[in-house]
C-alpha cells in the first residue's frame, strides 16, 4: 500500500485534476459531465474554493510521500446543522489497485469525524461500481439500500446506493 496524505486542493493541482476528469472510469462513476466542458476543472475548483470559505464543501488532493498527485478526496456536501457529511474520492488511473482509495476514504472519514464532528457520513455509489463499494466496506461503511433512478446525467437516470458510517460504527 502506498503511503498517502490529504492536502487541501490548490491551484497547483489543476493540471492533474484536468487529466483526472477526462478519465473514462472517473467519468462513468461521477457527476462530471461527459465530455467535461472546456475549463471544467478550473470552474469546479473555484466552486469548491468558494464553498470551503463558507464551510459547505471541502476538497483534498491525495498525494504520496513525494508529493505526487494520486487523486482527490472530496466532501461535496457538508451540513453543519445536522452534522452530516457526504464524502467521495477519485483515484488517478496510474494509482489504482494500490489501496489509495481505501486509505483516502479512511483519512477523510477520520477528518469528518474529528474536525467536523460528523454524526453521519454518507457515500453515494453507483450500483455498478463494485470497486468503490469494496472500498466503502473496507472502511466500515454500511450499505443502507438503493436510491432508484436518483442520478440524472446527460438524460440517463441511474440507481445509486447509499452507504453510511456513524461515529459509533
Give an overview in words.
With about 170 residues, the protein is α+β, with helices and mostly antiparallel strands. The protein has a domain of about 120 residues: Gcn5-related N-acetyltransferase (GNAT) (Aminopeptidase, 3-Layer(aba) Sandwich). Helix content is about 30%, strand content about 35%. The chain is built from 5 helices and 7 strands, in the order βαααβββαβαββ. A 7-stranded mixed β-sheet has the order 1-2-3-4-5-7-6, sandwiched between helices. β4, α4 and β5 form a beta-alpha-beta unit. The protein is globular. The mean pLDDT is about 95.
Summarize the structure.
The chain has 5 helices and 7 strands, in the order E-H-H-H-E-E-E-H-E-H-E-E. With 169 residues, it is of the alpha+beta class. Strand 6 and strand 7 form a beta hairpin.
Estimate the mean pLDDT confidence.
95
The helicity comes to 25-40%
Provide the CATH topology of the domain at 4-121: Aminopeptidase
Q: How does CATH name the architecture of the domain at 4-121? A: 3-Layer(aba) Sandwich
Strand order of the largest sheet: 1-2-3-4-5-7-6
Gross geometry:
globular
Structure class: alpha+beta
Main beta-sheet strand count, sense and barrel state: 7 strands, mixed
Percent range for β-strand residues: 35-45%
Supply Rg: 15 Å
**Oligomeric organization of the protein chains:** single chain
Total beta-strand segments = 7
- Sequence of secondary-structure elements: EHHHEEEHEHEE
Distinct helical segment count = 5
- The low-pLDDT segments are none
CATH homologous superfamily designation of the domain at 4-121: Gcn5-related N-acetyltransferase (GNAT)
What is the CATH C-level name of the domain at 4-121? Alpha Beta
- Give the distance, in angstroms, between the N- and C-terminal Cα atoms: 24 Å
Amino acid at each position: 500500500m502506498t503511503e498517502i496524505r490529504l492536502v487541501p486542493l490548490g491551484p497547483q493541482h489543476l493540471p492533474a485534476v484536468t487529466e483526472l476528469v477526462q478519465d473514462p472510469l472517473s467519468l462513468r462513476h461521477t457527476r462530471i459531465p461527459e465530455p467535461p466542458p472546456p475549463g471544467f476543472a478550473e470552474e469546479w475548483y473555484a466552486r469548491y474554493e468558494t464553498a470551503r470559505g463558507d464551510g459547505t464543501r471541502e476538497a483534498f488532493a491525495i498525494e504520496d510521500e513525494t508529493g505526487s498527485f494520486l487523486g482527490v478526496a472530496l466532501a461535496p456536501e457538508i451540513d453543519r446543522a445536522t452534522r452530516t457529511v457526504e464524502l467521495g474520492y477519485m483515484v488517478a488511473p496510474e494509482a489504482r489497485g494500490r489501496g489509495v482509495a481505501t486509505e483516502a476514504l479512511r483519512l477523510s472519514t477520520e477528518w469528518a469525524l474529528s474536525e467536523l464532528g460528523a454524526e453521519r457520513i454518507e457515500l453515494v455509489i453507483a450500483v455498478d461500481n463494485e470497486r468503490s463499494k469494496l472500498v466503502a466496506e473496507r472502511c466500515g461503511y454500511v450499505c443502507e439500500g438503493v436510491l432508484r433512478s436518483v442520478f440524472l446525467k446527460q438524460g440517463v437516470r441511474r440507481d445509486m446506493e447509499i452507504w453510511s458510517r456513524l461515529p459509533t460504527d
